[in-house]
Amino acid sequence: MQISRIKPATIELKTKLASVVINDHIQIGEVIIDGPGEYDAAEVATVGIPHEDKTIYCLSAEDMRLCSLPEGVTNLPQSVTEQIGSVDILLVPITETVTVNDVLGVVNQLEPTMIIPLGEGALIRFQKQGGDRGDLGLMAK
User: How many domains does the chain have?
Assistant: First the structure.
């Protein structure tokens, strides 16, 4: 699996069978996923988990599990963390109004192997505001 940042808040995954674009929805080839439910396209299993009025997307492909949080999610109830399960890569929006300290609670709840901060200047803000603890991988590009 290859992961690339194609815009500040958009990630592209390339698997053996598909190109997956992740932003506020998921697009696997021509299939657009925009809401809660279970989906399977091009051997990418996707679960949209409702949380408040937003959807958290978890994708599984090629033995990796990626979770994409919507903007503003700073704490999750145990029932949602159980639905999410184990996370290899966590996509976290960092904006002018959602700081690193706001999202560190979710990071600590999910304990991902790698974090990809999303948004204009998100990586720099993440590192400056104390999010780079040294025990997490961060994706720069």
Answer: 1
| Mean pLDDT, 10 residues at a time, the chain of 141 residues | 89 94 94 96 96 96 95 90 96 82 87 88 70 50 42
| Structural domain that includes position 106 | 2-138
How far is the C-alpha of 31 from the C-alpha of 78, rounded, in Å?
30
Order across the sheet with 26-28: list the strands. Answer: 2-7, 10-14, 19-22, 26-28, 31-33
What is the spatial distance between Cα 81 and Cα 43, in angstroms, rounded to a whole number? 24
pTM above 0.90, yes or no: no
Nearest to 137 by CA among 116, 114, 118: 114
Would you state the structure tokens that stand for residue 139, as one six-digit string? 């994706």
| CATH number, residue 92 | 3.60.15.10
